[in-house]
UniProtKB/TrEMBL annotation, chains A, B:
Highest taxon above the source species: Bacteria
Family matches, as Gene3D superfamilies: Bira Bifunctional Protein, Domain 2
UniProt name for this protein: Seryl-tRNA synthetase (Class II)
Native organism: Azospirillum lipoferum (strain 4B)
Keywords of the record: Ligase, Plasmid
NCBIfam families: PRK07080.1
EC number, as in UniProt: 6.1.1.-
Keyword Cell membrane: no
Keyword Ligase in annotation: yes
Amino acid sequence: MNMVDIRAAQAAYRDELVAAGLLIPTGVDGLYGRSGVFEEVVERFDALVTRWGGADGAEAMRFPPALNRQYFEESDYLKSFPHLAGTIHSFGGDEKAHRTLLRRLEEGQDWTEDQVATDVVMTPAACYPVYPTVARRGALPDGGRLIDVFSYCFRHEPSIDPARMQMFRMREYIRIGTPEQVVEFRELWLERGRGMMASLEMPLDIDVANDPFFGRAGAMLSSSQREQKLKFELLIPVTSTEQPTACLSFNYHQDHFGHIWDIRTADGGVAHTACVGFGMERVALALFRHHGFDPAGWPAAVRKVLWG
Amino acid sequence: MNMVDIRAAQAAYRDELVAAGLLIPTGVDGLYGRSGVFEEVVERFDALVTRWGGADGAEAMRFPPALNRQYFEESDYLKSFPHLAGTIHSFGGDEKAHRTLLRRLEEGQDWTEDQVATDVVMTPAACYPVYPTVARRGALPDGGRLIDVFSYCFRHEPSIDPARMQMFRMREYIRIGTPEQVVEFRELWLERGRGMMASLEMPLDIDVANDPFFGRAGAMLSSSQREQKLKFELLIPVTSTEQPTACLSFNYHQDHFGHIWDIRTADGGVAHTACVGFGMERVALALFRHHGFDPAGWPAAVRKVLWG
């Protein structure tokens, strides 16, 4: 398929999902409501992730979908992905400024230019609030730490592809410790991820990947990330086989976050980190694509895995 | 208690919650992570709401915590609550603009002023995406509609009061129909809300209330809203008895939203709407306040209601 065909396939799947009532359009590409059926699939998959990871004793943390702006500024996200970030702005004016705002709105002018940045930004990935939180606790215990998060995330990339939403949910396990602990964790989850998705009878492939770094300097970062095999993705065809969708990702950050927030291992070294991320909407979309829009008709083995 | 004492009590409860690990500070007032225990209480209360409301056959819709900006502009929210709204902005520049952004960040200058408003804003209340969605479906069926939503909401009101978060979750049932259908719904939920919270052994009071309208014109709107008894709140003491916390709210919007989005009843009249909202974090905070920080030690009757 060429790009025109791929876009057409994306639009067609989106339209099917809307017609079936699974996605509710909101008038903005990449921003959808979901039906109760869609949500139940997300909840059942979330419970499946807990079953595969639960015995490891991860500490659950649940952050809202916004982040302290200071942490965000420290995180280097703006160096790598300025185009995807969302900052939250608000009105700080008096009644006169309010009248001006309403007049502009009434006259169809831009009323947003006087909005001022607040102290919070949209969470770009579920693990971002974790690193400064763990850093505040002091040096890691001997075994390092294992954290379990789940959050809505925002990325400003309007798309007709239903698998590329502007607001989507990500479950993650995050390992923080020595390089050995962290690399072992990622290897473990590469195997588990394959097993988990195979149990859902999904056609899948795992491949080296890169993040969408911004600009020309970003191209070099992408290529270095691939060469060092820092990122893997579990890919499932959703709208096309030529461009399968990354449903899980397995990321080794080396000492990037440990260095920024000065996270130290028990023996005083800079902590390394890794995470496995589950794209909740993408997994649901893959299940609907391969098993149909009505979970009651899914293969018995898949139903048993999800509903027990 | 005077305001100084009330603030001290709010700060003290927040500090206790943080020390107990139930809330995770993020460095921003009103923005907290939550522990697994906190989340389990929220989940159990969510299930309780479903048990009380489930037999009514509401249609579940789950929207992400952001809203089409066009819908938001149409909603009149900016007339009434400009100070609480959050707009999402992003970077739209090229590599040169990116270098400028990074230089400003590096030098501690304001890097946010060139951020441009996107097509989405923060959801201010869980029901906002529902009205335009229902309007798109055409005239209501004879019985009207009943919708079930759950969403993170944003309000820009940084506070040390743990019961006044900037990002919090709201479950809602929304009734859309004739004035009679809608008023009956609100009466039903005023009774149910009282029964549900009494079953959790919460000290409670239900009272007429008003929304925090902006400015001097807002004071008149507040007073009119109270005179017409359009809003009730179920109040529970959390940080003080003098200023109990609104944990549930019962709102009759008359034809406000029906008029804006031209929602019509089966016989062609402008639809009226009402909603009951459950403040999930506030209910959890009330339970922790009155029954202690460890749910294992809560009264057996309360545990039975929540855990079955």
